[in-house]
Automatic annotation (TrEMBL):
Cited CDD domains: ABC_NikE_OppD_transporters (cd03257)
Family recorded in the similarity comment: Belongs to the ABC transporter superfamily.
Protein name (record): ABC transporter domain-containing protein
GO MF term set: ATP binding; ATP hydrolysis activity
Gene Ontology BP annotations: peptide transport
Keywords of the record: ATP-binding, Cell inner membrane, Cell membrane, Membrane, Nucleotide-binding, Translocase, Transport
Membrane topology term: Peripheral membrane protein
Source organism of the structure: Domibacillus epiphyticus
Record InterPro entries: AAA+_ATPase (IPR003593), ABC_Ni/Peptide_Import (IPR050388), ABC_transporter-like_ATP-bd (IPR003439), ABC_transporter-like_CS (IPR017871), Oligopep_ABC_C (IPR013563), P-loop_NTPase (IPR027417)
Entry keyword annotation includes Transport: yes
Domain of life assignment: Bacteria
SMART domains on file: AAA
Amino acid sequence: MSAVMTLTKEIATEKENEKDALFRTSPVLEIKNLSISLYEDKGGEEHRLVKKLNLSIRPGEMLGLAGESGSGKSLTASAILGLLPKSLSVSEGQILIRGQDLLNLSEKEMGHLRGKEIAYIFQNYQDSFTPFIKIGRQLVEALRSHDKISKPEAKKQALLWLERVKLPAEQIFSSYPHQLSGGQLQRASLAAALMFEPVLIIADEPTTALDVLTGEKVLDLLAGLQKELNCAVLLVSHDLKHVLKRTDSMAVMYGGQIVEKGATKSLRENPRHPYTKLLLKARPILRYTALEKFAAIPGEPGLIAKEGCTFALRCPLSFEQCYMVPAMQPAGRFQWTACQAVDREKVDTNA
Ligand SMILES: Nc1ncnc2c1ncn2[C@@H]1O[C@H](COP(=O)(O)OP(=O)(O)OP(=O)(O)O)[C@@H](O)[C@H]1O
């Protein structure tokens, strides 16, 4: 074997070992059996919008939550932040941050955790700042509301963070939000989210409102700062491209249920659940010519089986058992699937 080949193999093994180590550390966020429900009225019929969801994220790990619109990604993110709409509630489960169940915290305690230990970046970055107050003042006030520091010290920290997100710090510090471009504003909201050095960042569709290049730059920045802070990131995105490119692990949701999860590389190279396979096939790939048709996912979006695997009604491979047992089962190293067909036959979505 040539020296170059040996070195390449050693680097690959080292990367695999790093990944193994990542998945073996204790999670920052652990969600156990989480269900989110809508009740028609008090004591009325319950509609489960998120069903018995389990996932965990470790320090330094970026987990992508993928799935079609309406699959329950944002509700999951909102539940972690304690920001579910009033009409909805967590009907069962636990959301643990470093072992502490957020669902047992008071509004005040949750408010303290949110924005400090758990940071969030949303698609509508315009809402991150109050329109008629300068960015600098807002950052200084936020810093001083969580930590007992002097104004000059807070200003120093705010300027430092604006620099860390690669903005002209002094200029942005004295600007009003409307004087910034969309990309600048999203970077400033990244600074606002990260300046407390959170253990978990929830990024819900952070690039949807930005053009492709600006969005990529924001995600580069997020990835770089995540490494520096060694924090966990939950990246919610309906854009599979971002999830496949950026994340260490991913969970695919359909109809409020995780149908498959695990290391992103494993799911990309060897998806086991028919929905994951179809989702991967349905994404636009540049090498296709304009005349080639993307594979479409059969059936109506939003058609959800009430029992068993939520995708069963649209699945080309479903059989009786799929309507009964939705249990996750191992489907490889660092990969779990809710598909009953995995052991039964080779899953072939061309069938
Ligand atoms: N306030 C609400 N009241 C009733 N139903 C809701 C409410 N918010 C969300 N839902 C429903 O819950 C389901 C999951 O919604 P959610 O916003 O989590 O989807 P999503 O996967 O984030 O979709 P998108 O990518 O479009 O944001 C959808 O069927 C949605 O209609």
